[in-house]
Amino acid sequence: MTTTSSFTACTHRIRAFIERGGGGDTAFATLVRELFALQFAHVAPYRRLCEARGVSPESLGDWRQIPAVPAAAFKEFELTSLAPSECVAVFHSSGTTEHRPSRYFHSADSLAVYEAALRPWFARHVLPTAWSAFRPAMVCLAPPPQLAPHSSLVHMFACVSATFGGSGSRFLATVGADKAWQLDSAAALDALREAESAGQSVVLLGTAFMFVHMLDELARRSLCFTLPPGSRLMETGGYKGRSRELPKAELHALLTDRLGVPPESIVCEYGMSELSSQAYSLVANHSVFHFPPWCRALVVSPETGREVPDGETGLLRIFDLANVGSVLALQTEDLAVRRGDGFELLGRAAPAEARGCSLLAA
Amino acid sequence: MTLPNYFLADLPPEADLTPAMVTDACLTLKRNRAHYLAVRDTPSILRTLVRTGEDWLCDDYPFRRFALKEGPLHTGFSAHTLATGLDHFFKQLTGENIEALLAQELGPAHRFDAFCASNSDSRTRRLALATGPELVGHITAGCVPNAAFMAILLGLLTRSAQFIKCSRGGAFLPRVFLHSLYGSEPKLAACIEIAAWRGGSPALEEALFAQCDAVTATGEDVSVEKVRRALPPRVRFAGYGHQVSFGYITREAISGWRAKKIVAAAAADVVAWDQLGCLSPHVFYVEDNNVGFALQFAEQLAAELERREAAEPRGKISTEDAAHIAARRAIYEVRAAHSPETTRHWCSADSTAWTVVYEADARFALSCLNRFIYVKPVLDVGEALRGADPVRDHTSTVGLAAQEHELEGLAKQFARWGATRLCPLGQMQNPPLTWRHDGRLLLGDMVRWTDWEQ
After folding, report:
1. CB contact under 8 A, A77 and B338
2. B338-384: per-residue pLDDT in tens?
3. Where are the domains of chain A?
4. Which of B150, B320, B348, B357 to mutate to test the interface with A (most CBs of A within 10 A)?
5. Domain spanning B244-424: which CATH class is it, in words?
6. Quick one: which of A46, A203, B354, B382 could link to B305 by a disulfide (CB 3.0–4.6 Å)?
7. Closest Cα in chain A, distance from residue B424 (Å)
8. Does A308 touch chain B (CB under 8 A)?
9. How confident is the model at residue A241 (pLDDT cuts 50, 70, 90)?
10. A80-95: pLDDT as tens digits
11. Residue B315: closest CA among chain A residues belongs to which residue?
């Protein structure tokens, strides 16, 4: 049994911190240090990395020095403090070309923290302003949880649908033999028609590639909708080769054209299966993302590993208190520009265009 | 020094090329060729090339100085890396070497000048004359300039007008070389055009290919294939797709008195052109037999790369390239912490300047380059070749460090396996002028023969 009483107590404190909406830098630093010490003690592959770096809970100076584990390590190592008997869910990274996905294990407790973390930040950024008086239908361009039990995104959609969604909430995709998600176009069109005729605002949640599939279907049928005022679209993730790729501005313009949703009602989300908190952009055509107060992002220089000055580009490193059962410090391969306490996402560092003639992509 | 506007590549980057400009340039090249190049004999061209090569080896030659001063900004290589790379190429540009190249490819050196006979021609009572294409188009990739330099050299020897299309950012060194040629022989340089545009500009390429009677292309397999498909059927084509290289070091060699030299030679291969050429090693296989030679070699290589960085710094790289190195290092750091007996890594401090990864897994690994090298222990050459099997059809050079008595056996194994060039470690990026690129004749695809039976 690795979930010690101190782990449980720390998890409760973190959950309370999240439910209070954070609590200042000092409280964050205290909890981060406490969680790091527990993860150092209970996540063996992580402890080995820390020891190789010469960092221990005792020697740690600033919390920003906590060693970040590369997201790719989740494919090779079981970065979890949980005993197998405690696991109630495993989230895998998406992507059809990946031979070996990342695995992120959850216990009932850690899943509860995950859900506690995702709800308020989602509500603040995605829900229509009048949501407390009205439960909008959550139309998810994704398969239902029983078809995609390892998708953290689907779990999130299910959680927000159950918490905030009205009676018309539904999932509108299936999973193909190749594990790719397939939009149920007829059901999607029905959902749009219903929303338009009922005149009640609706929230559409989906990945960029599922929105592209939907737009292609609308274009094929020469259809346009005007979703009721207050409707929101939340778009997340990349394309992973699952549809033609559109620049974000073009995708949003098409969504505005075809669905009648103004640009300021389109929200972008940034999340990963290895994280428990999500970042959102505040305005659709402005790509600056913010994490909630219990999750901090640093933009670090790939050359030195140190935080870059404001306005400069580097790799995104995330410290997520809600990652209670795993590792709180995650080194992504995403490039971002530091913008105040947020970041402008540039996307995955694509295999660099080789300047020589050894052009095999690594 | 500023370069005058002689070539399309001299136009400011914002100047858009049009198909009409490409067509006009090709027609001018053909006219100039007829007047200035087709009438030249081999010895005179050879003299010009040798003189230009000698100029480039002089420290105070203005074009060399310009290339070293401005090159870091345009190419991303440090001045030292540029100087070393340019010196290696131009030292090869001697009359003796060019004559050897002509002899290798054509037999008698004056095949382009008159009907003449090799020994085998004489035995069959024949004379033969070689004729080069009127206009050759060269599609080059990357900013290691050797492929473009060789293309220019071969094109001049075949008396062909040439249009060199570089990738954006890859034109700088070939362009300075052409200006130097212009400086010594404007009429010869007037038979060569150089331009840079982004690959996959079909209108420009169609205009170019319509005028060419031969085309060469280097780059990614997909790009090379695209060029081939875009050519009219009458156009001759020589394509050189992506290639990788690696080194092989025997137990006897690394355990002997030459160990230090072998490490220095390996470092030279990693440092040359910042490892960005297709002849640069991705991996060094080291015969080990579980006694730690490979680990020791990796550690010494790291120390050597650190020393080299101080004297011959790697060029500045983009944030994206640095991010790739950082991401790759990060995963090896976790593996090394977890299984130090099978994975170790050494990195430059506070930079991505150099990285050595020791990995006890013989599977070939593609480096992210920019001085990022794998060292892999193997029991014997058989294990190395099995590990490298996925890149068997893409392997160019194998750099060898072995004792004299081991070399012939190894060479045969690598050759039968499919490698097209074997060389001593330390020389991987310095092929001789006569190097049969990717195991093929240099002029074989370009030349038309006329046999005259007596």
Report:
1. yes
2. 999 999 999 999 999 999 999 999 999 999 999 999 999 999 999 99
3. 5-85+291-339, 112-289
4. B320
5. alpha beta
6. B354
7. 20
8. no
9. low
10. 999 999 999 999 987 5
11. A355
State the average pLDDT for chain B.
94
> What is A34-87 written as a DSSP string?
HHHHHHHHH-HHHHHHHHHHT--TTT--SGGGSPPEEGGGGGTS---SS-GGGE
In A, minimum Cα distance to B223 occurs at A359
Structure tokens at B409: 């056996």
**How does pLDDT run across B387-402, given as a tens digit for each residue?**
999 999 999 999 999 9
Closest Cβ–Cβ partner in A45, A73, A360 for B366: A360
* Dihedral angle of Cα B252, B254, B255, B260, to the nearest 10 degrees: 140
Concatenated DSSP letters of B278-308:
TTSEEEEEEE-TTSSHHHHHHHHHHHHHHHH
Q: Is the dihedral of CA A206, A210, A215, A217 positive or negative?
A: negative
Contact B318 A352 (CB under 8 A): yes
Q: Positive or negative CA dihedral for B372, B378, B380, B385?
A: negative
Q: What is the dihedral of CA A122, A126, A132, A134, to 10 degrees?
A: -130
CATH number assigned to the domain with residue range B8-242, chosen from the 4 options 3.40.50.720, 3.40.30.10, 3.40.50.620, 3.40.605.10 = 3.40.605.10
Q: By the 8 A CB rule, do A298 and A334 touch?
A: no
Whether residue B76 and residue A355 make contact (CB cut-off 8 A), yes or no, is yes
Distance, in Å, from the CA atom of A75 to the CA atom of A97, rounded to the nearest integer, reads 13
Query: Which residue of B220, B326, B391 is in closest CB contact with A302?
Result: B326
CA-to-CA distance for B384 and B387, rounded, in angstroms?
A: 5
Q: Kindly report the nearest CA distance between residue B218 and chain A, in angstroms.
A: 8
For CATH 3.40.309.10, the residue range(s) in chain B are 244-424
Return mean pLDDT, chain A. Answer: 89
Q: Do A335 and B76 touch (CB under 8 A)?
A: no
Q: Are A350 and B320 inside 8 Å of each other by CB?
A: yes
Chain B neighbors of A77, CB-CB under 8 A: 334, 338
Alpha-carbon distance of B142 to B225, in angstroms, equals 17
Cβ atoms of residues A21 and A120 within 8 Å:
yes
CATH architecture of the domain formed by A112-289: 3-Layer(aba) Sandwich (3.40)
Give residue-wise pLDDT tens across range A26-83: 999 999 999 999 999 999 999 999 999 999 999 999 999 999 999 999 999 999 999 9
Residues of B in contact with A335 (CB under 8 A): 319-320, 323
Report the alpha-carbon distance of residue A280 to residue A268 in Å, rounded.
Answer: 6
User: What amino acid is encoded at B411 in this protein?
Assistant: A
State the span(s) of chain B assigned CATH 3.40.605.10: 8-242
Nearest residue to A138 via CA among A115, A172, A180: A172
